[in-house]
Amino acid sequence: MTIHPFENIRNFSIVAHIDHGKSTLADRLIQTTGTLAERDMVEQVLDSMDIERERGITIKAQTVRLEYKAQDGKTYILNLMDTPGHVDFAYEVSRSLAACEGSLLVVDASQGVEAQTLANVYHALDAGHEIVPVLNKIDLPAAEPDRIKQQIEDVIGLDASEAVLISAKTGIGIDLVLEAIVKRLPAPKGDETAPLKALLVDSWYDAYLGVVVMVRIIDGTLKKGQKIKMIAADAHYEVDKIGVFRPKMQDVAVLGPGEIGFITAQIKQVADTRVGDTITDERKACDAALPGFKPAQPVVFCGLFPVDAADFDDLRAAMGRLRLNDASFSYEMESSAALGFGFRCGFLGLLHLEIIQERLEREFNLDLIATAPSVVYRIVERGGEAIELHNPADMPDPTKIEEIQEPWIRATILTPDDYLGAVLKLCQDRRGVQVDLNYVGKRAMATYDLPLNEVVFDFYDRLKSISKGYASFDYNITDYKVGDLVKMSILVNAEPVDALSMLVHRDRADARGRAMVEKLKELIPPHMFQIPIQAAIGGKIIARETVRALRKDVTAKCYGGDATRKRKLLEKQKAGKKKMRQFGKVEIPQEAFIAALKMDG
């Protein structure tokens, strides 16, 4: 039973913007320290999900324990946490940072500091981390290390004079990174003799082991067979298995202060293991719990419905299993007249929504329809009571509403100077309010306050297309503000289609309504009677299109003769069409729903 002295342990995470080389650097560190045999090495070792490999992004933070023999002759235990770079997974990043004392800040030596670099560095600084800047991709012809060092000092305010220059792909400078980790990052602190105090960093479900819990030991020791208590959940367990990740699981007998590892304890539900909870000894509890994490607040909601109603039970089971591995995803059941039974789901952003939808379709073979994404509005009723509105179809009677508040965000956009005009116009069009604009070298950094409602649909795609992919964007939610919002309903043959109703700003309702009815006119196939498609706010119709009826030529059998005979046949047909329209049901094909929901002009 060996407990490693803390001065020989380093816990660190790698933070960076998307695609600046975090996972590749993690691969090189694993390879250089000989943690995995050469035959087991693959690219992006820590990105274990198929979807992570295909998209080339990290979704779940992963941990690995490395052993490194430094130049001073000592052997160090390095616990590395590879974190996601995308804004939708900032929650994963904050959890990982809480378990570490230091960070490697990876910056692309040709692209420099991006919006997400800033956001992740500020997360690390808030967590009290020591930060070592690392300039990656110095083997590229476009690399400008001196300019980027200056940029790090100007934008972030970190001393970058001793930044480590590396190429994670070719392996240049990896030894220097390992030495910098050992020399420049602090060792963890802790008391081995104190009662056990451990932070629950993450938990997930394993088909063979049940719930696996990742822990960071602060004080005391954790042994196999020990009886533990989770303070917030008030649950008691006995530890079955204890180990570390090298990236595969490896059993150990004991974990001491400063170490990161995992335990299993016959826990049945991941819901019982709250991320950020404090684990302590059942009999000899620690005096105070750790502060923990704020629960993840979903910002985007959308309905997910099975294309085939018979798949509803499979969808319910699949959601339950996904929820086990992703604490930031929430769902509740709902039903819709147009789409049948489904679920209203909450996500941290649009990429999160896309990933969950893709995982449901892939891992569980489901065909799904997603309704238009919407944000959480706050409605203050005349009595003063505030309610949260996740689904526009549930909006109360307008006469009872005092005001509607919508969430606003503070967005930081970094863009090359050439595209600044187009970027500012985009923000202006989306009801943005400029807060700040300054220059960092040749790039402009614009700070805007924007309503989240306007950003959710396709702001990111528009931003990338007008800046040819060069602009980067990061945001955090600030507060709720009162907005002049109205509910826009879409009526097909005078019947409201609940899946297409949405909350829009009054100034933009006409344009949004017109675009929606024009789109639906192309998508709904002609029936035997004409179909009016209308966009309405309350009782007022703001836009209308008509799908022409299919007509049978009833006068074909009349050869000449009296004109009144033809008129009689046409009148009879007209009466029939009118009756049909009253009783006829309009079949809206699923493709029309999907295409209409993707629409945003």
Describe the structure.
- By secondary structure, the protein is α+β, with helices and mostly antiparallel strands.
- The chain folds into 5 domains: 6-184, P-loop containing nucleotide triphosphate hydrolases (Rossmann fold); 197-281, Beta Barrel (Elongation Factor Tu (Ef-tu), domain 3), CATH 2.40.30.10; 300-371, Alpha-Beta Plaits, CATH 3.30.70.870; 378-483, Alpha-Beta Plaits; 487-598, Alpha-Beta Plaits.
- An 8-stranded antiparallel β-sheet has the order 11-10-16-7-8-15-12-13.
- β22 and β23 form a beta hairpin.
- The longest helix has 21 residues, at 563-583.
- The chain starts with 8 loop residues before the first strand and ends with a helix.
